[in-house]
């Protein structure tokens, strides 16, 4: 009998032996329910979390399947306490339900139900839950205040009793939307994602960058067939959504409106930015009327892992409307994954990055970490700097310019993105490379012109700030050089690699380089940033600049 690549420990951590022949297979199976915590060279550490198990349960996986995965790949017997905890945690999902009374005097009223009176008694007596419920109807049923559906779900997740929401959704104003599969077809995984979402009513679809999340959004809109509000990260993304919807659906220009800092159009399909929805005037959210401008039948949250905190509060009040979240990663750096789970909905569909790559729908990618030495003069400045300044000094090391030039020279015929965090560093880099620069200060029309110039091949090198992290379609980029980032942000690392994953017409492998300053916090943050991609099966080759 072959010993497996996993060691399951009683504290619910799981160690994966990277060099084992079954490691890749085990990694894919683990990603369904566990989160990668550390990914050094030889042993990767995963943690089994409640939220991971509940998401797996909502996506249709059972505790028996998960225990079978652990038993199949474990080097030693799975501790009985871990097996019991997994079963107990997964069985908590759905033992409470939120429903509507179907008939009688109270028809249409929202209620919290359970077949187990003890559970109901426990949650109804909790300080933060009691005000959300009315007087008990019977031993198994409590009425729910009409406004409290979202907050109740949040509080139940916090108490460890995630409710299954069976209360249904308002159909919204009908609006016919059809997919126009003219010269293209939905891929099998995209179709499966739409079906899983529609069957569940609301929830999150997790697909890698470049795998066609916009098409899944369009498919969801066609399945629901109602007026739709689409929330996106920025105006560039809004215009890309508009362009894709015109190309992929029966919608016309007159049916799609943009609601952003520049334009205020409300149409049957309206694309709004998170920024406009959360902007305030005299302390009030000035554009909340958009949420009631139509009787929306569907709300699409693009890049749901970036949902600003104020939008959670607004979403808590939108629980009667169908919601779909689209993302490449459920990782949130603010730790609010539980709010995504309770307010947008649980994970309905998740496709492993390497599986989509194997099918040829995203480009294969090689990841490299290039380590440089901090020059002596900068090392002294770094040594005496305050903690909040140390990362900036290390990440902005001047030696990174020379290394970036050498990497670009290795890829003479490829399109290269140079991505960073600090504007002065990017300005200096753009000047050194004689390349155009896009930052948050670049006017929208100029941004679109430069992106188009890059797509067409007129400009082979483009230097960009974090404005290019999200929802920017640059299919011909095949090399990215990351010179600095948002500290240890795993989601940013995933998004930046995602800029390269659109399939290449020549079938080429994409190259993702991170230039890291050795023996500084830049190196420490880089290890954290790489965790999510390591979980997806991407290995980093670490080399010295010398």
From TrEMBL:
Sorted keywords for this record are: ATP-binding, Helicase, Hydrolase, Isomerase, Nucleotide-binding
Stated name of the protein:
DNA 3'-5' helicase
Cite the EC number.
5.6.2.4
Q: Does the keyword Isomerase apply?
A: yes
| Top-level class of the enzyme under EC nomenclature | isomerase
Q: Where is the Helicase ATP-binding domain?
A: 194-348
Q: Which SUPFAM superfamilies match?
A: P-loop containing nucleoside triphosphate hydrolases (SSF52540)
The family note in this entry says: Belongs to the helicase family. RAD25/XPB subfamily.
Q: Which residues form the Helicase C-terminal domain?
A: 402-546
Q: Does the keyword Transmembrane apply?
A: no
Q: Name one GO molecular function term.
A: helicase activity
Where are the coiled-coil regions? none
Against InterPro entries, the record matches this protein to:
ATP-dep_DNA_Helicase (IPR050615), ERCC3_RAD25_C (IPR032438), Helicase/UvrB_N (IPR006935), Helicase_ATP-bd (IPR014001), Helicase_C-like (IPR001650), P-loop_NTPase (IPR027417), XPB/Ssl2_N (IPR032830)
As its record notes, the protein acts as a catalyst of:
Couples ATP hydrolysis with the unwinding of duplex DNA by translocating in the 3'-5' direction; ATP + H2O = ADP + phosphate + H(+)
NCBIfam families attached to this UniProt entry: repair_heli_XPB
């Amino acid at each position: 009998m072959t010993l497996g690549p996993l060691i399951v420990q009683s504290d619910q951590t799981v160690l994966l032996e990277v060099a084992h022949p079954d490691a890749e297979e085990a990694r894919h199976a683990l990603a369904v329910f566990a989160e990668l915590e550390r990914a050094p060279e030889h042993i990767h550490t995963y943690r089994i979390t409640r939220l991971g198990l509940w998401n797996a349960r909502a996506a249709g996986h059972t505790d028996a399947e998960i225990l079978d995965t652990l038993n199949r790949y474990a080097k030693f017997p799975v501790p009985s306490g871990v097996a019991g905890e997994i079963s107990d945690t997964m069985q908590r999902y759905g033992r409470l339900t939120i429903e509507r009374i179907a008939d009688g005097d109270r028809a249409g009223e929202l209620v919290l139900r359970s077949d187990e009176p003890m559970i109901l008694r426990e949650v109804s007596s909790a300080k933060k839950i009691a005000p959300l419920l009315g007087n008990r109807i019977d031993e198994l049923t409590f009425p729910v205040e009409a406004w409290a559906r979202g907050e109740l779900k949040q509080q139940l997740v916090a108490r460890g009793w995630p409710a299954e929401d069976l209360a249904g959704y308002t159909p919204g104003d009908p609006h016919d939307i059809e997919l126009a599969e003219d010269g293209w077809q939905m891929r099998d995984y995209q179709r499966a994602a739409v079906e899983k979402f529609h069957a569940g009513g609301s929830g999150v679809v997790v697909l890698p960058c470049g795998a066609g999340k916009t098409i899944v959004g369009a498919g969801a809109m066609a399945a629901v067939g109602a007026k739709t509000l689409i929330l996106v990260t920025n105006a560039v993304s809004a215009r890309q959504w508009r362009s894709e919807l015109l190309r992929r659906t029966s919608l016309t220009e007159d049916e799609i409106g943009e609601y952003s800092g520049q334009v205020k159009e409300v149409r049957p399909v309206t694309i709004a930015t998170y920024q406009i929805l959360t902007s305030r005037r005299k302390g009030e959210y000035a554009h909340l009327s958009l949420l009631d401008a139509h009787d929306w039948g569907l709300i699409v949250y693009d890049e749901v892992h970036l949902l600003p905190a104020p939008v959670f509060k607004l979403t808590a009040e939108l629980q009667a409307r169908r919601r779909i979240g689209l993302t490449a990663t459920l990782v949130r750096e603010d730790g609010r994954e539980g709010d995504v789970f309770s307010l947008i909905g649980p994970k309905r569909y998740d496709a492993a990055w390497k599986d989509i790559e194997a099918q040829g729908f995203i480009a294969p990618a090689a990841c490299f970490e290039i380590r440089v030495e901090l020059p002596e003069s900068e090392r002294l400045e770094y040594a005496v700097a305050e903690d909040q300044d140390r990362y900036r000094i290390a990440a902005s090391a001047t030696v990174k310019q020379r290394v970036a030039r050498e990497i670009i020279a290795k890829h003479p015929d490829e399109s290269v993105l140079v991505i960073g965090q600090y504007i002065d560093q990017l300005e200096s880099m753009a000047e050194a490379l004689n390349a155009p620069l896009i930052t948050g200060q670049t006017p929208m029309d100029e941004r679109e012109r430069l992106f188009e110039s890059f797509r067409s091949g007129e400009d082979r090198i483009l230097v960009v700030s974090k404005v290019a992290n999200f929802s920017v379609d640059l299919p011909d980029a095949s090399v990215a050089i990351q010179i600095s980032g948002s500290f240890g942000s795993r989601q940013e690392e995933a998004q930046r690699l995602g800029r390269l994953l659109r399939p290449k017409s020549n079938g080429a492998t994409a190259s993702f380089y991170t230039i890291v300053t050795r023996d500084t916090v830049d190196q420490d943050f880089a290890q954290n940033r790489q965790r999510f991609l390591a979980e997806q099966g991407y290995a980093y080759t670490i080399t010295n600049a010398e």
